[in-house]
Design a protein that fits this description.
single chain, Rossmann fold
């Protein structure tokens, strides 16, 4: 991990959210997956920071951000991110979110379009049904009984190294469980996204490839031949990275390369 040029807690949306800034250039907010933290992106963050100002965020109850006395919802965390962008002094910023962070990024683009420039959603469904059945069942089973077993995972090892109070691990598990197992369908909201959007999934992802393709069609993509001159294309893009799973894609250099190509096409 590179050393951040700036870090701390932003007082936004009635709470305090941890952030860290890496690199220089156009701002991009980077949002991690469930049970993760800024550090989970590893080489992807470093590659992004070579040409952009990356603003890593620890979402509610994750990493250095405390659990807070409020339910964990995609909408509340999206409000946090919109507030952070404004608090940092930006009119707009690009946002890239993976998995749970992708859900937060999606809601930010829907609920706060005025602060989002370009949007990149990695392994992110627009509905709970977009996950494979196996993953739906697993998310519905996350609860207090998982607190001790999950201490044997790399997620806990990272959490124990950076959390202000490691005893909040149980609250993280409980809150993520309450969020992850909820049914939702945001298909009606996709048309509200005003930002040029890129969808990225792995070919062996936890998100169904058919669902990802359906998501792209909701964004107006893939419905017609682009034409010899590309005149029928809109600003949205879709990429399936070969040989990637839900558990490798957030660290894959190919993810950074794909994202940078989209960001730099402004």
């Amino acid at each position: 991990m590179p050393t951040p040029s700036k870090s701390g807690y932003a007082p936004v949306n009635g709470v305090e959210v941890y952030y860290a800034v890496y690199g220089e250039g156009e701002p991009i907010v980077l949002l991690h997956g469930g049970f993760g933290a800024i550090e989970m992106f590893g080489p992807v963050l470093e590659l992004l920071a070579e040409g952009h100002q990356v603003i890593g965020v620890d979402l509610q109850a994750h990493g250095r951000t405390l659990p807070m006395d409020r339910p964990m919802t995609f909408e509340a965390m999206a409000d946090d991110i919109a507030g952070l962008i404004t608090w940092l002094g930006y009119e707009k910023a690009d946002i890239m979110g993976y998995s749970t962070g992708g859900g937060v990024a999606l809601r930010t683009a829907v609920d706060h379009p005025e602060v989002v420039d370009r949007l990149i959603l990695v392994s992110t469904p627009y509905a709970f049904s977009g996950w494979h059945d196996y993953n739906q069942q697993g998310m519905r089973m996350i609860g207090p009984e998982a607190i001790e077993p999950m201490k044997q995972t790399p997620m806990y090892q990272m959490y124990a190294q950076i959390a202000p109070d490691v005893n909040n691990w149980g609250r993280l598990i409980t809150k993520v469980g309450e969020l992850a197992g909820q049914d939702y369908d945001w298909s009606a909201d996709i048309a509200k996204i005003q930002s040029p959007t890129m969808l990225i999934v792995g070919d062996w992802d936890s998100v169904r490839t058919a669902h990802a393709a359906s998501f792209f069609e909701l964004l107006g993509g893939g419905k017609v031949d682009a034409g010899w001159d590309g005149a029928n294309m809109n600003a949205n893009r879709f990429a399936i990275l070969p040989g990637q799973t839900h558990y490798t894609i957030f660290m894959a250099p190919e993810l950074a390369e794909t994202a940078i190509g989209f960001l730099d096409a402004k």
